Amino acid sequence: MTLPSNSAQLTPADFTFSYNCLGDIDYDTRFAVAKAAGFREIGINLRHMGGWLKDHSLAELDALLDKHGLIVGEMEAVRLMLAEPDPREETAALIAEHYRPQRLQATGPYEGTLEEAAARAGRVADRFAQWGVEVVLEPLPFTNMKTPAIAAEICEIAGRPNLSICMDVWHLYRNGLTVADLEPAWKHITTVQFNDGTVIAENDDLLQDCLDNRRVPNAGEFDLVGLLQARDAHRPDATFSIEVINSAHAGMTPQAVAQSIADGITAVVAKLQ
């Protein structure tokens, strides 16, 4: 997807609708509500897809994507820096060959040194380059690849053109950082992942916090306008994903969740205009 370099022109259609926004619901419903809310790219969860493919085929998924006029934009997530390859890498390869999505998201932890982590990340980047897939490292504060600086160092050491960073704004703030702290890492950031939340974590267990308390854009305290402005200034070719995970959404219909997320994106973008 080619996005406008000016974020004031963004719409929900410019954001990949992450799998985790809705959890494990059937694909027909997922795709219908995503399309109705204005999205055109969806994300695939490799854990769920690996199980789904035991009883279904990609031809079935093709039919549903065609029915709703959507494409696959991302796959998440693999742990590609461990000594033993992640079995989900094989599911990712199957999806990548068939759909050629923009990105494969990867998280820590890593084992060994940064050099060993970079070598493993480089191997996966090389494998997925044949399908035009960007392998994006997502820093998580509850792993040893905590910060964008660590992810950037791994990218530097690996030196692969399709190995970069997915910067989820949630994890930026949970690292105690701000948009200003991203300046040294922007050259490696190719994906910006959107959501909102409180600046101070609501739960000291940061893993649980990110599974319970994310807000739709414009419903929290994050400087999302500043993030968009920084993206435009430093990396105007960076693409977008939206991932809002909130336990309260279990009491809402999928349609209401998807629409509230789309409305939040629109509200933030309007502040740039």
Give the tags.
alpha/beta, 273 residues, single chain, eight-stranded parallel β-barrel
What does this structure look like?
The structure is a single chain. This protein is α/β, with parallel strands linked by helices and 273 residues long. It contains ten helices and eight strands. An eight-stranded parallel beta barrel has the order 1-2-3-4-5-6-7-8, surrounded by four helices. α1 runs parallel beside α10 and α5 (114-129) packs across α6. The radius of gyration is 17 Å and the shape is globular. The protein starts with 14 loop residues before the first strand and ends with a helix.
SSE topology sketch:
Elements: E1 15-17, H1 27-36, E2 41-45, H2 46-52, H3 58-68, E3 71-78, H4 88-99, E4 103-107, H5 114-129, E5 134-138, H6 148-158, E6 163-168, H7 169-174, E7 189-194, H8 206-212, H9 224-234, E8 239-242, H10 254-270
Parallel strand pairs: 1-2, 1-8, 2-3, 3-4, 4-5, 5-6, 6-7, 7-8
What is the compact description of this entry?
The protein has helices at residues 27-36, 46-52, 58-68, 88-99, 114-129, 148-158, 169-174, 206-212, 224-234, 254-270; strands spanning 15-17, 41-45, 71-78, 103-107, 134-138, 163-168, 189-194, 239-242.
